Amino acid sequence: MNEHFICEIDWPKSDLENQNMTIRTNLIDMKNAIEWVNLFSSILNTNWIVSFELNNPQNSVDTTSNSITVILTPSKAGAIPLAILIHNGESEENYTNAFNLLKNKFPLCFGGNSAPMVFMSDDSRAEKNSLHSVWPSAKQFFCHFHIAQAEWRWLHDTKNGIQLDDRCPLMRLFQKVMYADNMNDLENSITEIRNVSTKFNNFVQRFERNFNRKEEVIK
């Protein structure tokens, strides 16, 4: 049976700025935690809290499997990082552990609020479920970039059977729906996609599933 420990190190770099950033990773022991702090303490005006779990070595995860989640907020100057979370994998449990760490240590990090009004992310079900679990009041959306990126990757995945010469034309059909400026253009673009169902049935079925989630999309 694994022993489960949480160790935290508060490393104030400067009192000039009250900035905080959080990382989460599968550190091995206190020595490893100190090495992490020393590595990142070169960043000025930043307080680092390093949290780690000490597990049975037989069940340990190699550090190369860590994932990084960056939480950003928009501003007139561009995107501003609120937190960098380094977590052990991309399961719902991994995301929940990382988000709870941020919530518990910096409960008002969202502009002085306990939760944001909106999260915008890619279509990771594990991440979305975790965000809802930790901050249930926040609405969730995903943007055109993530949708187009996922569609392009799907078209290029050989298991979906889309030939090379067909990928760009199908992507253009998909984008016509995404960027339709009025209902007439939208309806015509949808009809164009449905008209290719005989040859590209899996593409059309995927489109229908995504289109049913249109309320979750932000341009």
Give a topology summary.
Layout: E1 7-11, E2 20-24, H1 30-40, E3 47-52, E4 67-73, E5 80-87, H2 92-105, E6 118-120, H3 125-134, E7 139-143, H4 144-156, H5 164-178, H6 183-194, H7 201-211, E8 217-218
Parallel strand pairs: 2-3, 6-7, 7-8
Antiparallel strand pairs: 1-3, 4-5
Helix pairs in contact: 2-3, 4-5, 5-6
Describe the protein in words:
The chain is built from seven helices and eight strands. With 219 residues, it is of the alpha/beta class. Strands 1-3-2 form a three-stranded mixed β-sheet, with helices on both faces. The chain has a three-stranded parallel β-sheet with strand order 6-7-8. Helix 1 links the parallel strand 2 and strand 3. The chain starts with 6 loop residues before the first strand and ends with a strand. Residues 1-25 and 42-63 have low confidence and may be disordered.
Classify the oligomer: single chain
> What is the helix content?
25-40%
Q: What would you report as the Rg, rounded to the nearest angstrom?
A: 22 Å
The overall pLDDT, averaged over residues, is: 77
- Sheet having the most strands: 3 strands, mixed
Beta fraction: 15-25%
Structural class: alpha/beta
- Residue stretches low in confidence (pLDDT < 50, at least 5 long) are 1-25, 42-63
General form: elongated
Distance between the termini: 48 Å
With strands numbered from the N-terminus, the spatial order across the biggest sheet is 1-3-2
The total count of helices amounts to: 7
Number of strands: 8
Order of helices and strands: EEHEEEHEHEHHHHE
